[in-house]
């Protein structure tokens, strides 16, 4: 202590007071004043703000020392030590209620006086610290709008903070018990919460639950209680209002549900229109067949039955009409083929992909026996899939590989599979003319062709069919290529 501690002495016997002042000075304390009556001491405390009061009980005036100390306790946080000759129980009991920092019986030694004063200062320091941390805690609780509560397990009495009482809609002045609290819990949750609470109390476990409380006259609220044991008998907890979060969770949930409904309804509508559209294009394609057949037939008839009516230019024109008609028929047939494949109901079974690929390979080789070709098919390629659709898929990919490698010296086609990230990826690879990757995203669109019709014939429907089939199986299809170095088509059959 840099400054000597300042002590107010309250003592009506001037000799005793003087003597005490001397002894205190020798001990290193400062005694700036001496009071003889209650009122005088209260005034002096207000003016001087001493660090400590040494209080005689029998003093002048209409208050005794104990009454003065009680008054000082209400207005000033100054520690008081009684110095008195009274030692009977009734006085001690009255003095005790004023929470003195010490009680010294006259006569006392210097050492006793010094020790008592030192202990009083130490206790005051601790109390100040305690008050500071209490204030800090309260600030934190207020800022977070948290309530606190304490439960006595034997009596089931709950002591709620005002905020806790407000949260559960309980009057501040009425005693609260555990059954009272449970009675406020929403009836649908009450039993479950009571059971959990019971377990926590029995096994001295932590309790952390959210539930709805219903109090008369106030809107229902969601609260959360986090509680733990501080001893076998006492449980303390923190209470918070989680209504806002709960409500947004609920709103989000209903929103999600209605969105899901909407999506399902829209998807159904979309499926329906898709079906109608498919049926429509099917019937259009189907009805176009007859006139196209007539155009082809008539132009051929014209050439056969009236060959003398045309010169060479006329014959060329009629032949081009017939050829265009045939091309149109091929397109229509491809469309019809695709529409039919779309309508096939899926029947999943274990499909022997190697076997099907082998059959297609034989057909290709037989179609052009003079062509030098090597088609390698990995053994035991299998998948859970629809056999008819998988055959159409392989047919399109392998026919493309065959077609676009027609100009290679030796045609090489590989059909195989690899595992990528736990997924089986099938591939059909060739050493043909390939294509420019810049156009890769067009490949699978209907009627899209990256090569000229006079170089490689086709309708541009094949890869569209491939993509539909793969998608119906929940898989993906993609391609790699470099012009002149061949192409590789990859696909999976289930996601
Ligand atoms: N193996 C391949 N090599 C090079 N280009 C290919 C290959 N497969 C497909 N393509 C390109 O993709 C286009 C679309 O293929 P596809 O839909 O099967 O139509 P089509 O075979 O009737 O031309 C082809 O016209 C071609 O340009
Ligand atoms: Mg094709």
From TrEMBL:
<dbReference type="GO" id="GO:0030295">
    <property type="term" value="F:protein kinase activator activity"/>
</dbReference>
<dbReference type="GO" id="GO:0000155">
    <property type="term" value="F:phosphorelay sensor kinase activity"/>
</dbReference>
<dbReference type="GO" id="GO:0007234">
    <property type="term" value="P:osmosensory signaling via phosphorelay pathway"/>
</dbReference>
<dbReference type="Pfam" id="PF02518">
    <property type="entry name" value="HATPase_c"/>
</dbReference>
<dbReference type="InterPro" id="IPR035965">
    <property type="entry name" value="PAS-like_dom_sf"/>
</dbReference>
<dbReference type="InterPro" id="IPR050351">
    <property type="entry name" value="BphY/WalK/GraS-like"/>
</dbReference>
<dbReference type="GO" id="GO:0000156">
    <property type="term" value="F:phosphorelay response regulator activity"/>
</dbReference>
<dbReference type="Pfam" id="PF00512">
    <property type="entry name" value="HisKA"/>
</dbReference>
<dbReference type="InterPro" id="IPR036097">
    <property type="entry name" value="HisK_dim/P_sf"/>
</dbReference>
<feature type="domain" description="Histidine kinase">
    <location>
        <begin position="283"/>
        <end position="495"/>
    </location>
</feature>
<keyword id="KW-0597">Phosphoprotein</keyword>
<dbReference type="InterPro" id="IPR001789">
    <property type="entry name" value="Sig_transdc_resp-reg_receiver"/>
</dbReference>
<dbReference type="Pfam" id="PF00072">
    <property type="entry name" value="Response_reg"/>
</dbReference>
<dbReference type="InterPro" id="IPR036890">
    <property type="entry name" value="HATPase_C_sf"/>
</dbReference>
<dbReference type="InterPro" id="IPR004358">
    <property type="entry name" value="Sig_transdc_His_kin-like_C"/>
</dbReference>
<feature type="domain" description="Response regulatory">
    <location>
        <begin position="6"/>
        <end position="121"/>
    </location>
</feature>
<dbReference type="InterPro" id="IPR003594">
    <property type="entry name" value="HATPase_dom"/>
</dbReference>
<keyword id="KW-0808">Transferase</keyword>
<dbReference type="InterPro" id="IPR011006">
    <property type="entry name" value="CheY-like_superfamily"/>
</dbReference>
<feature type="modified residue" description="4-aspartylphosphate">
    <location>
        <position position="56"/>
    </location>
</feature>
<dbReference type="InterPro" id="IPR003661">
    <property type="entry name" value="HisK_dim/P_dom"/>
</dbReference>
<dbReference type="InterPro" id="IPR005467">
    <property type="entry name" value="His_kinase_dom"/>
</dbReference>
<dbReference type="GO" id="GO:0005886">
    <property type="term" value="C:plasma membrane"/>
</dbReference>
<keyword id="KW-0418">Kinase</keyword>
<protein>
    <recommendedName>
        <fullName>histidine kinase</fullName>
        <ecNumber>2.7.13.3</ecNumber>
    </recommendedName>
</protein>
């Amino acid at each position: 202590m840099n400054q000597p501690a300042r002590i107010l002495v309250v003592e009506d016997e001037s000799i005793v007071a003087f003597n005490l002042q001397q002894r205190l000075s020798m001990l290193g304390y400062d005694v700036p004043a001496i009071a003889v009556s209650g009122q005088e001491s209260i005034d002096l405390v207000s003016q001087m703000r001493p660090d400590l009061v040494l209080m005689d009980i029998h003093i002048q005036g209409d208050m005794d020392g104990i009454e003065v100390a009680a008054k000082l306790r209400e207005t000033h946080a100054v520690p008081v030590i009684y110095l008195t000759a009274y030692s009977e129980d009734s006085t001690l009991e009255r003095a005790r209620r004023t929470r003195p920092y010490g009680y010294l019986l006259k006569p006392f030694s210097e050492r006793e006086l010094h020790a008592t004063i030192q202990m009083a200062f130490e206790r005051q320091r601790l109390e100040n610290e305690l008050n500071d941390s209490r204030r800090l805690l309260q600030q934190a609780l207020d800022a977070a709008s948290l309530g606190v509560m304490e439960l006595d397990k034997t009596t089931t009495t709950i002591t709620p903070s005002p905020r806790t009482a407000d949260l559960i809609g309980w009057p501040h002045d009425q005693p609260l018990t555990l059954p009272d609290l449970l009675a406020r819990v929403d009836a649908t949750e009450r039993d479950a919460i009571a059971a959990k609470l019971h377990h926590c109390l029995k096994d001295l476990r932590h309790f952390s639950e959210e539930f709805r409380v219903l109090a008369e006259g106030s809107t229902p609220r969601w609260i959360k209680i986090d509680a733990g044991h501080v001893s076998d008998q006492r449980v303390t907890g923190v209470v918070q209002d989680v209504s806002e979060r709960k409500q947004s969770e609920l709103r989000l949930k209903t929103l999600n549900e209605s969105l899901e409904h909407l999506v399902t309804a829209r998807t159904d509508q979309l499926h329906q229109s898709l079906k109608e559209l498919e049926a429509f294009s099917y019937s259009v394609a189907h009805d176009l067949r007859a006139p196209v057949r007539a155009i082809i037939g008539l132009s051929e008839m014209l050439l056969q039955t009236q060959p003398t009516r045309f010169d060479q230019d006329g014959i060329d024109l009629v032949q081009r009409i017939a050829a265009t008609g045939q091309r149109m028929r091929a397109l229509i047939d491809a469309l019809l083929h695709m529409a039919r494949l779309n309508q096939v109901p899926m029947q999943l079974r274990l499909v022997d992909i190697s076997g099907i690929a082998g059959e297609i390979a034989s057909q290709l080789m037989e179609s052009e026996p003079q062509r030098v070709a090597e088609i390698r098919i990995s053994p035991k390629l299998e998948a859970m899939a629809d056999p008819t659709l998988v055959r159409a898929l392989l047919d399109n990919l392998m026919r493309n590989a065959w077609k676009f490698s027609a100009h290679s010296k030796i045609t090489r086609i590989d059909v195989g599979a690899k595992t990528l990230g736990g997924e089986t990826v099938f591939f059909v690879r060739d050493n043909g003319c390939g294509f420019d990757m810049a156009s890769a995203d067009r490949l699978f669109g209907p009627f899209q062709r990256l090569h000229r019709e006079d170089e490689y014939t086709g309708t541009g429907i094949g890869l569209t069919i491939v993509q539909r089939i793969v998608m119906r199986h929940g898989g993906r299809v993609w391609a790699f290529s470099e012009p002149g170095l061949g192409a590789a088509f990859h696909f999976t059959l289930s996601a």
